[in-house]
Queue: 2 jobs
Job 1
Amino acid sequence: MTWSILARDEQGQFGMAIASRFFAVGSLCVHSRRGVGALSTQALMNPLYGPAGLDLLSQGLNPAGVIATLIAGDEGREQRQVHILPHTGAAAAHTGTECIDWCGHLSREGLSVAGNMLAGPEVLEATADTYLSMQGHPMAERLLAAMEAGEAAGGDKRGKQAAALKIQHHEDYLQLDLRVDDHPDPLAELRRLYEVSLERFQPFLTCLPGRGRPSGITQRAEIEATIETFHAKRAQK
């Protein structure tokens, strides 16, 4: 019912994007944790995989071992699809034998893409190839373009309904968390929301309390100056 992309960069940032002909697909499928990794549970999703998988990953178990542990006690494992991208090292995935075609997974350095009920393998290939072709661009923009390419290649063979984009960087909270739960063109709406987030939301988040600055920026003039600097830097690119 879904395809998703998990990505990481050299700074330890994780990005996740997902789309499906299923309501609110971003609510229970994709999970991440700072310094640990990212995971997506899909097909007949098991939302318990998210917290449990990231706990196991944080304890030092490799992604293949995490997946083996998650599915071992799950009677529905042959209807599940799950893929994991760790903070370092290679991705791993499981696509159960009862997942609906086309279904499968591919991985590259710092990248994992998986899907089921798709038009064909070209959906994943277009998603991965587009992401990798956009080095130097912000991760969120690479993910959006990658998902748009996957949709252009056929996407979910049932149609469109929901999409989500999430970025996890150096804080325990998400740097960006955008969801389109029900829309005739969810990826286009997701891109629109991303553009709106650039106006004030994204630069404002850099002023919030964080691990290196427990109180954040509290002076309104300094917040406004931070937002202005953010836009000045974007204008120079």
Job 2
Amino acid sequence: MALYAALTFWLVVIMFAAWGVHRIWSGLVRPRVVNSVLLPGTLVAELGHVLGLLLSGNSVQHITLMGDDDKGEPQADSAEAPRLPIVGPILVGLLPLVACAACLYGAAQFWGSTILAGVAGTPAQQLPQILPTTLPGLWELLRDCITLTEVQFNAILHSDLPNPRTALFIYLAVCLTVRMAPFAGNRRGALGAAFLAALLVSAAGSLVPAVRTFIQVSTWPVLSFAIGMLLFLLLVSLLVRGVIGLILILTKNR
């Protein structure tokens, strides 16, 4: 169970980190510009969102990848009330995350194997699969996250960036990880989706041992890469926002 508890925790971290990055970017530039840049990830997340609405018994009447307002947020309108009051929102929150994660896994296998090997090629470079239960363990976990961010930066910096395949993978990785943020109006369902996903994987792993092996060997490096990418983007975004805020404060006080 320790593995699946860690999986739930890191999925929640992904959601909040992606949400934070998107909010910071939307505060620095126009939200419509941010959503335009993230269009590939928006497309994947919106397809998962629509599929979740349909599977929960709702009909989708209007789908827009970019709204007409200044925010330019994706929209999928359903005139019906949710037929599954609890399971429905969880399903709607789960499928965009699964869709983005699946596409990130596929992109990593096709175009990002070199970067992925540099970031999470060994278990020592990956996120812990067992959560700490002591205060020193918590500090060690935070140090592991910082180390993962450093390794991520070095791997991208020393990768073959002029190669179109590498550049495409990095761009898709940014789009897909940031678009793992919960959709507005369904953030509680997205948090419940993280627990549901871990529960389903736990049940499948107890029945089929190969599922647990797949999570530990194949999925965990991609999960580590996603969190490393989001933490790196979050740190850089906070730094840029802080510098801009400091410049504005100094300029106004002249």
